[in-house]
Design a protein that fits this description.
With 590 residues, the chain is of the alpha/beta class. Helices cover 37% and strands 15% of the residues.
C-alpha cells in the first residue's frame, strides 16, 4: 500500500481517484497531519480526530461542493478543511491573518454554511434542500453532521420536526461520541446510550423514525467499509434520512481518548506521547475561576443560591459549585433559551439563580431575557463570561455585542467590574435580595490582582467611581479595559491632565457623577471593549443630548463590523485598544 497519500490530495477530486482500499491509510495520515499541526499551533483537537473516517467517506462518495455539506459547530471540520484545498495553509488555522477555525463561506466554496455556535446545521441544510427543490434540482444531496450534544438543543429539534414532514432530500448524520465540550447530559443522551446498547430499540422504538426519518444505525463510525456501504445505500434514498454513527472523540491519540474534556482544545502538546506542554505558571487567576470559587463561597452561606449553565460547566468554572453542591448545580445541555427561562422559574419561587453563560451564547436566548426575566422583573443573575475580544475563535465568539443588546431592556441592571475584587463584590451584592435582574459581564482569561479573595463589600448599584482627578480630559471607562486605560495614563508624561472614571454600570448610569464630569471637563473620552454602536459610549451621548451638554465627546471601542480571529492582544493593537494606542489617542485630545 502506497504511503504519503495525503501529499497528493489537494481537493476531493484527488481523493476520489483513490481505491477504497487505500482510504484507511489516508485516514491514518490525516490524523497524523492534524495532530502534528495542532500540537504546535493549538486549536480544537478531539472532535476532528473523531470524524476522520466520516470526513473521508463523505468527500469520497458525495459530489462536494455541488452536494452541500454542513458541519455543526465546526470543531470537527479540520479534516474537511485539509481535504478541501487548505492543507498547505492549515498551519495558519485560527491565527491572525490565517484561515478560520470554523467553516466560513467566504473562505471556501466547500464551506456551505458558516458555523460557530451549535445546532444550526439541520435548519441550514433543510433550507438548502427546499431551495434546491424549488429550483428544480432534485438530485442534489444536502448533508448535516451533528453531535449528540448539539442535537439535544431545541433548535435542532425544531428543525427535525419540520424536516420530517418536508420530504426534503437531506441526510442527517449523528456523530455520537457522548461528549460535546463537557460530557453530554440529559434524557436524549441517556436514550442514545440505550440505543447503542440495544439494537432492538434502535430498530423499533425509535424517536427519529417517529419523526418520519429513514433511520439507519448505529454503526461504527471508524469502520470505513461499513461507512462507505451505508452512505452509498443512502444516496439512492429520497427524502429525510438519518444515519447514527458511533465514534470516539480524540480517536488516534491515546491521551485525547482518555481525557476528552481536556483534549477538546488542549493547547500545545507532544505529538508522540500526547502529553500537554506545561505553560509557564501564571501568578494571577482567571476571571472564570474567580467567579466559580466566589459562587461556592456565597452558596455556603446562602442556601437559596443555584447555578445554571447551558453546557459550559468547565468553561464557566461552575464545575466548582457542581463539586460542592451537585444538587444545586444544573448543566442543561446546549439549551440557552431553556437555561434562561429555567432561571426565571426558579426566581419566582425564591431561589437565587446564577445563570453562567458566554456573551455570544446569551444572544441565543434574547427573547427569554426580555420576555421571561426582565418583563416580569425577576432577579435572575446573569454571569456573562467571555465578554469583549476573546481571541482565535473569531467573529462567532467575540463577546462585543452584549452591552448594546442588553442596554435597551427595561428593569435590567448592567454591570462590568474592572477587576477580580469588583467581580466578587458585585456577585456578593447581587445575591443579597436585589429587586431586579442583573447582568454582570467579565472577560476571558487572567485578571491582574494576586490577592483577590478579599472580604466582601456591598456595591452601591448604579454608582461609578473616580480613579484619578485630572485637569483637562475626562476618560470614562467600563469593565476590564479600565485597567488598560489606567496603564496608558500612567505612561503619559502629561498624566495630570487626565481624569479617569470607572462608571461600573451602564444601566443605571451614575447621573450625579456624570453631571459633575460634564461640568468640569470640556472633553470626554469613553472607552469600552464592546461595539460602539449602541453601547456604553452611546449611553453617554444620550445623557449629554438629554441635558443639552455641548462637550466634545469621543467614543472608543469596537468598530461597526465583525471582528476576525486573532489573539486579543493582536486585535487590540489593530483596533487601537492596546495601551500604547490608547496613550496616543488620549494625548491627541489634550
Amino acid at each position: 500500500m502506497s504511503k504519503n497519500l495525503l501529499n497528493n490530495i489537494s481537493n476531493p477530486t484527488d481523493l476520489r481517484k483513490l481505491n477504497s482500499e487505500q482510504l484507511p491509510q489516508l485516514a491514518k495520515e490525516l490524523r497524523e497531519f492534524i495532530i502534528d499541526i495542532v500540537a504546535t499551533k493549538e486549536g480544537h483537537l478531539g472532535a476532528s480526530l473523531g470524524v476522520v473516517e466520516l470526513t473521508i467517506a463523505l468527500h469520497y462518495l458525495f459530489d462536494t461542493p455541488n452536494d452541500l455539506l454542513v458541519w455543526d459547530v465546526g470543531h470537527q471540520a479540520y479534516g474537511h478543511k485539509i481535504l478541501t484545498g487548505r492543507k498547505e495553509v492549515f498551519h495558519t488555522n485560527r491565527q491572525f491573518g490565517g484561515i478560520a477555525g470554523f467553516p466560513l463561506r467566504t473562505e471556501s466554496e466547500f464551506d456551505a454554511f458558516g458555523v460557530g455556535h451549535s445546532s444550526t446545521s439541520i435548519s441550514a441544510v433543510l433550507g438548502m434542500a427546499i431551495a434546491s427543490r424549488l429550483n428544480g434540482n432534485l438530485n442534489k444531496h444536502h448533508i448535516a453532521v451533528i453531535g449528540d450534544a448539539s442535537i439535544a438543543s431545541g433548535m435542532a429539534f425544531e428543525a427535525l420536526n419540520h424536516a420530517g414532514v418536508s420530504k426534503a432530500n437531506i441526510l442527517i448524520i449523528l456523530n455520537d461520541n457522548a461528549i460535546g465540550i463537557d460530557p453530554a447530559v440529559g434524557a436524549v443522551k441517556e436514550y442514545l446510550t440505550k440505543v447503542k446498547n440495544d439494537r432492538k430499540l434502535a430498530a423499533q422504538n425509535n424517536i427519529i423514525k417517529a419523526l418520519n426519518f429513514d433511520y439507519s444505525g448505529p454503526i461504527d463510525g471508524h469502520d470505513l467499509p461499513k461507512l462507505l456501504s451505508e452512505l452509498k445505500r443512502l444516496q439512492s434514498i429520497k427524502g429525510p434520512k438519518f444515519l447514527h454513527i458511533i465514534t470516539t472523540k480524540g480517536k488516534g491519540l491515546q491521551k485525547a481518548e482518555e481525557d476528552q474534556v481536556t483534549y477538546h482544545a488542549p493547547g500545545k502538546f507532544d505529538k508522540i506521547s500526547g502529553e500537554r506542554i506545561k505553560k509557564e505558571s501564571n501568578l494571577y487567576t482567571k476571571y472564570q475561576d474567580v467567579f466559580g470559587k466566589t459562587i461556592v463561597e456565597l452558596a455556603e452561606k446562602n442556601d437559596k443560591i443555584v447555578g445554571i449553565t447551558p453546557a459550559m460547566l468547565t468553561g464557566s468554572s461552575l464545575k466548582f459549585l457542581m463539586k460542592k453542591f451537585p444538587e444545586r448545580t444544573f448543566d442543561v445541555g446546549i439549551a440557552e433559551q431553556h437555561a434562561v427561562t429555567l432561571a426565571a422559574g426558579m426566581a419566582t419561587q425564591g431561589l437565587v439563580p446564577f445563570c453562567a453563560i458566554y456573551s455570544t451564547f446569551l444572544q441565543r436566548a434574547y427573547d427569554q431575557v426580555i420576555h421571561d426575566v426582565a418583563l416580569q422583573n425577576l432577579p435572575v443573575i446573569f454571569c456573562i463570561d467571555r465578554a469583549g475580544l476573546v481571541g482565535n475563535d473569531g467573529a462567532t465568539h467575540h463577546g462585543v455585542f452584549d452591552l448594546a443588546y442588553l442596554r435597551c431592556i427595561p428593569n435590567l441592571i448592567i454591570c462590568a467590574p474592572r477587576n477580580e475584587i469588583e467581580l466578587r463584590n458585585i456577585l456578593f451584592t447581587a445575591q443579597k435580595g436585589l429587586q431586579h435582574p442583573i447582568a454582570i459581564r467579565y472577560p476571558r482569561g487572567y485578571g491582574s490582582i494576586k490577592d483577590w479573595q478579599q472580604p466582601f463589600n456591598t456595591v452601591e448599584i448604579g454608582k461609578g467611581v473616580c480613579l484619578r482627578e485630572g485637569k483637562s480630559v475626562a476618560i470614562l471607562s467600563l469593565g476590564s479595559i479600565t485597567n488598560s486605560a489606567n496603564e496608558a495614563i500612567q505612561k503619559s508624561i502629561k498624566k495630570d491632565e487626565f481624569a479617569h472614571y470607572d462608571l461600573r454600570f451602564v444601566k443605571p448610569l451614575d447621573q450625579q457623577l456624570l453631571h459633575k464630569i460634564f461640568k468640569k471637563h470640556s472633553t470626554i473620552l469613553t472607552l469600552e471593549d464592546g461595539v460602539i454602536s449602541g453601547g456604553f459610549g452611546t449611553s453617554i451621548l444620550e445623557f449629554a443630548a438629554k441635558h443639552q451638554y455641548k462637550n466634545k465627546i469621543k467614543l472608543l471601542g469596537i468598530p461597526d463590523h465583525f471582528i476576525e480571529h486573532g489573539s486579543p492582544e493582536r486585535l487590540q493593537l489593530k483596533y487601537g485598544l492596546d495601551v500604547n494606542s490608547l496613550l496616543n489617542t488620549f494625548e491627541f485630545y489634550l
